[in-house]
Design a protein that fits this description.
The chain has helices spanning 5-8, 19-23, 35-43; strands spanning 13-15, 31-33. The protein is an alpha+beta fold. Strand 1 (13-15), helix 2 and strand 2 form a beta-alpha-beta unit.
Length: 46
């Protein structure tokens, strides 16, 4: 079940390991990243 709080949020990125959420990455411009992807793109890339 999709958390409806995400639908009213303006968060451009959601970090989750949930396969169902990962499968809808890009919906309405919201990227869903795994923790590893987030780390690689935003933490270690600094």
């Amino acid at each position: 079940m999709l958390d409806t709080n995400l639908l009213v949020s303006s968060a451009p990125i959601v970090v989750s390991g949930d396969r169902d959420l990962l499968s809808v990455s890009g919906w309405r411009g919201i990227a869903v990243l795994t923790p590893r992807q987030f780390h690689d793109q935003y933490i270690s890339g600094r």
